[in-house]
Amino acid sequence: MQPLSDDIAEWCDETWGQSPSEVLEWFEDDERVQVFIKLQRSVLIADFMFKDNAVNMSRDRIEIRHHLHIPLDIWNPGSIQATRISDGRVRFRHRNSDILLAAKMRAPEWGKNTLEDWLMSLRGEQLRPKDKNQRLASIKRIKEIVNRNLHSASLEGARDDLHLINLRINSAEIGLNPFESKLQEAE
């Protein structure tokens, strides 16, 4: 018998046109399975029901009951909410959509943090340059930024300014008291 993850991957292929890169189980019993699914540019929370004769089947054992899709494009860090409701079930919410999952001994924050971590890693992969030349150009840009910051943090310019200010102060003092300058020249 195939593992259940194969059925979930098949459903993802049919529905979303891509295989999941990761699947984590939240809850499973004789009637249903609830999972978190990481796709290429989104994450899903899915609630599947087992079909009536699923025990005797090797494929196509599940059907979707409800899901919550969170695309990377509309996700912001902290926008996923997870709360335990009075009957013990856990409500996951993103924007105006939500899904209720079975009461589980895991904290709701575990699921929320898992989804947020997945989305954060997807965002990082999206920003990462793809080929060698782009990575090299990115590293060179970063090097130039660091060099400019080091140059602006350098004390050379401050030392030059301090020397110039001391010369101006001495010149101003001499201009204010011309007799003292003649005494210093005579000594």
What would you note in describing this structure?
With 187 residues, the protein is an alpha+beta fold. The protein folds into two domains: 4-127, PH-domain like, CATH 2.30.29; 132-186, no CATH class. The protein has helices spanning 4-16, 108-127, 132-153, 156-176, 178-186; strands at residues 22-28, 32-38, 42-50, 62-71, 80-84, 90-94, 97-101. Helix 4 (156-176) packs across helix 5 (178-186). The chain is elongated. The termini are far apart. The model has no long low-confidence stretch (mean pLDDT 84).
Summarize the structure.
The protein has 187 residues and is α+β, with helices and mostly antiparallel strands. 45% of the residues lie in helices and 26% in strands. Strand 1 and strand 2 form a beta hairpin.
SSE order and pairing:
Layout lengths: L3 H13 L5 E7 L3 E7 L3 E9 L11 E10 L8 E5 L5 E5 L2 E5 L6 H20 L4 H22 L2 H21 L1 H9 L1
Antiparallel strand pairs: 1-2, 2-3, 3-4, 5-6, 6-7
- The CATH architecture of the largest domain comes to Roll
**Order of strands side by side in the largest beta sheet?**
1-2-3-4
Structural class: alpha+beta
Number of H- or I-type helical stretches:
5
The helix/strand order is HEEEEEEEHHHH
Low-confidence stretches: none
Indicate how many domains the architecture comprises. Answer: 2
Name of the level-1 CATH class of the largest domain: Mainly Beta
Radius of gyration: 33 Å
Strand content: 25-35%
The termini sit apart by 107 Å
Query: Any idea what the shape is?
Result: elongated
Main sheet characteristics: 4 strands, antiparallel
CATH fold name of the largest domain: PH-domain like
